[in-house]
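Consider the tokenized backbone below.
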């Protein structure tokens, strides 16, 4: 019996979430539409896959057996579809580039200048992604490459670090700490942070709540966001705070009113990098990764493969890159961060 790829994806997502509401949110579907699709799949199969109850759904014995096969089939069809899309884009000399928050050509111009020099005929199409959810390989399904703070490691995914950068705190301008010029982790660790949807990768989400600086207890949180616009909407409504990479600060200041962006002095830095599926067939991805590696380590070994973060020399390479970028921007480059809407000093160049 032939199945539509969407049917399998819907079923697997519902099984993973254990609830129609959360699954529909993760899939960006209306809950009634998802419920109808699952019921239709069960009707076509002639078996009951899910047991519905007040708190959500659980798999029936038949559903547990079918889930295993559905995951295998979904992975195969997803891989085939991704391969076809990447080959089609490669034929058009086009690369689909995913990002979170600020478009990366605004905060990483050196990388895109180097790529343009190597591939003058290439075209890049930018796409804003939701926060990393599920496996990293499935999150990358619709793009050739993405750039963000490194998500959960995945055996099918390559990662090329581009640089480290500090985190900054984003909070409502009515917050008691909003007038501070700089904050420490201790200042904000007990504050209420914006929460993330349960589908978002826990370690990735926890990094922005400063969980990497906590012993065990999770941060107090409100709401549940799936993407950057939702995060900032919640903050603008005075319902929580978050941290973001410092490179996002300028865009936040331009676009949002009623919030402040304040440097966080002692938090561990974020590692921003390129992430792509190992079976992507678009040669432009390799060219972009090569440009990133050469920028990060101009005096190191040839840029022929992605960096292993545990590799000797990794931190040195990133420090080298950050130093070179700072020199290009000039000594007056560091603008003071503050209230959005207020005029701030602008970086040179």
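A designed sequence for it:
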């Amino acid at each position: 019996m032939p199945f539509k790829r969407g049917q399998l994806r819907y079923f697997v997502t519902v099984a993973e979430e254990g609830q129609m509401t959360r699954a529909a949110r993760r899939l960006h579907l209306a809950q009634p539409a998802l419920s109808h699709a699952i019921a239709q799949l069960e009707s076509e199969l002639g078996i009951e896959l899910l047991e519905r109850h007040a708190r959500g759904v659980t798999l029936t014995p038949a559903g547990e057996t079918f889930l295993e096969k559905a995951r295998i089939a979904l992975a195969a069809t997803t891989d085939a579809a991704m391969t076809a899309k990447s080959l089609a884009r490669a034929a058009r000399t086009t690369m689909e580039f995913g990002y979170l928050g600020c478009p990366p050509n605004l905060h990483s111009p050196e990388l895109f200048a180097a790529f343009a020099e190597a591939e003058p005929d290439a075209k890049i199409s930018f796409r804003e992604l939701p926060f990393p959810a599920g496996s990293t390989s499935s999150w990358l399904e619709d793009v050739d490459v993405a750039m963000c703070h490194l998500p959960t490691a995945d055996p099918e995914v390559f990662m090329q670090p581009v640089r480290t950068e500090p985190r900054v705190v984003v909070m409502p301008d009515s917050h008691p700490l909003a007038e501070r010029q700089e904050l420490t982790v201790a200042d904000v660790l007990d504050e209420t942070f914006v929460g993330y949807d349960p589908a978002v990768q826990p370690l990735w989400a926890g990094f922005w709540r400063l969980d990497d600086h906590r012993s065990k207890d999770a941060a107090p949180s409100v709401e549940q966001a799936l993407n950057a616009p939702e995060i900032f909407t919640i903050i603008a409504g005075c319902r929580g705070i978050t941290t973001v990479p410092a490179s996002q600060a300028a865009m936040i200041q331009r676009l949002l009113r009623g919030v402040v962006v304040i440097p966080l002095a002692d938090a561990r830095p974020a590692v921003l990098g390129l992430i792509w599926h190992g079976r992507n067939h678009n040669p432009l991805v390799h060219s972009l990764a090569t440009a990133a590696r050469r920028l990060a380590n101009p005096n190191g070994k040839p840029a022929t493969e992605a960096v292993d973060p545990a590799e000797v020399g990794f931190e040195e390479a990133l420090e080298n890159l950050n130093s070179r970028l700072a020199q290009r921007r000039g000594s007056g480059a560091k603008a003071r961060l503050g209230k959005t809407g207020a005029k701030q000093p602008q970086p040179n160049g």
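Residues 120 and 175 are 47 Å apart (CA to CA).
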